Amino acid sequence: MESRAIKILAPMNKKITVKVIPGHFAAGNSHINLYIDLTTMKTRQSEAAEAAKAMAKQYIISTLVDTIVCLDGCEVIGAFLAQELTLTGIMSMNAHQTIYIIAPEFNTNGQMIFRENFIPLVNGKNIVLLAGSTTTGDTLKRCVEGIRYYGGNMQGISSVFSAVPSVEGIAVHSIFKAKDLPDYESYNIDECPLCKSNHHLDAIVNGSGYIKL
Fold first, then answer.
1. Does pLDDT of 202 surpass 80?
2. How are beta strands 13-26 and 203-206 bridged, if at all?
């Protein structure tokens, strides 16, 4: 499967790349024909830093941020994003401030959970939600609802890749969009043409990676 990988450069910054693998993948709420591998971006210092610089441009002048809630193992990117937003010497709403970087848990119903010790970092705080890959927006919708339930003030959503422009009326700022990936398609599970043509699933994928079938 990995031998089919294609490297895609970000339109806004050629230092930012993702690998995409063509095939047939089950992605929770949908089936997709391209798996977006963000492993190196989420774990390699140089790539995470470049991604964070691109994301920071959406918030640095105009948005107050107290906490970055990270999904899909994006804590490294989140830490660099916080660093960019608190840099001195630039016109930043967050200069000299401290930004928290946290990751939620999820119950068996897919609902976001924060432990008691994390609730003070959400309740009454200005929140940016950070994701790796957004396919249908269903997960982000539940997360926005969860953050609001815990008293957080949503200030923005960022995702390395997003196939949707907004969630719950909040724009999803992404480095890569569906138009940037070759022939990207997302299908409802019951309407997937790959299933109807008996094309077997290559893997089950989520924000943590993939399991080959």
1. yes
2. parallel
